[in-house]
Write a structure and sequence with these properties.
single chain, Fumarylacetoacetate hydrolase, domain 2, eight-stranded mixed beta sheet, globular, binds 2-oxoadipic acid, binds magnesium ion
């Protein structure tokens, strides 16, 4: 049996080198709390290589995502400095194993959050809201995992792109969301597909972060989770999302 430390190191190396690995759950029984411990240890490898924590992400906050991946609980992961891709920027395909993209909403935290907040209270801790795209890239073969596997793998995090910031009082409920590849709509959803109200995802982030002793600090990006299923991407594609009243976000995948 491998130790938690060894598993964390292997997951980290798989992510950094874009190598796929076997699901942990095929050979080890790990609990939810083991899985979050592995995630934290794996991320510490990134920190010791000079990366910094720049935000958190929520996952499986929509029915579409839970159905697509066969997993039925909300999860959270960490976003680090190497993961941020500029809006209208480029990313090289060699960084990834079998990447997918999904349309999201992102929050910018303006004040440190200490405790658990509800969907109304959180608004006082946010300076802006934006449309976003997340790139996810499970380190597991065939993009298949159990809930514990995906948590240990930092919830498949590898990249994210954030659009222009809009004021915190911009309504973000009931907005039409399109995900496009090379200008063609591949997924359509609504911002309310995120827990019925994207603000509830940020409230849930405060609850989970508190539960796992993860501070939410001013300046952090918090990704609310995808509103639609995720779509595979290939080199030489342009990926964009259009969110009603939050404009558009895009990036290019180079070969
Ligand atoms: C896990 C990450 C889920 C979301 O937005 O729901 C996620 C995965 O699907 O690989 O990021
Ligand atoms: Mg996501």
């Amino acid at each position: 049996m491998k130790t938690i430390e060894k598993i964390a190191e292997e997951i980290h190396l798989a992510a950094i080198n874009a190598n796929e690995i076997e699901q942990i759950s095929l050979s080890h029984t790990i609990s939810l709390s083991d899985a979050y411990n592995i995630q934290e240890l794996a991320i510490q490898h990134r920190f010791s290589e000079g990366e910094t924590l720049i935000g958190l992400k929520m996952g499986f906050t929509s029915e579409a995502k839970m159905k697509q991946m066969g997993v039925h609980d909300m999860i959270w992961g960490r976003l680090t400095s190497s993961m941020l891709i500029l809006n209208h920027g480029k990313t090289n395909f060699s960084k990834y194993i079998h990447p997918r993209v999904e349309p999201e909403i992102c929050f910018m935290i303006s004040r440190d959050i200490e405790g658990v907040l509800d969907e109304n209270q959180v608004k006082d801790y946010v300076s802006g809201v934006a449309g976003a795209i997340e790139i996810i890239d499970s380190r597991y073969k065939n993009f298949k995992f159990s809930l514990e596997d995906v948590i240990a793998d930092n919830c498949s995090s590898i990249g994210f792109v954030v659009g222009d910031w809009f004021p915190v009082n911009t309504p973000i409920g009931d907005l039409k969301i399109d995900l496009l590849i090379d200008g063609e709509v591949v997924e359509t959803g609504n911002s309310n597909d995120i827990l019925g109200d994207p603000w509830k995802s940020l409230a849930a982030a405060t609850r989970l972060a508190h539960q796992y002793n993860q501070p939410i600090k001013a300046g952090m990006y918090i990704m609310a989770g995808a509103a639609t299923s995720a779509a595979f991407i290939k080199p030489n594609q342009t990926i964009s999302t259009k969110i009603e009243s939050l404009g558009s976000v895009n990036f290019e995948v180079t070969e």
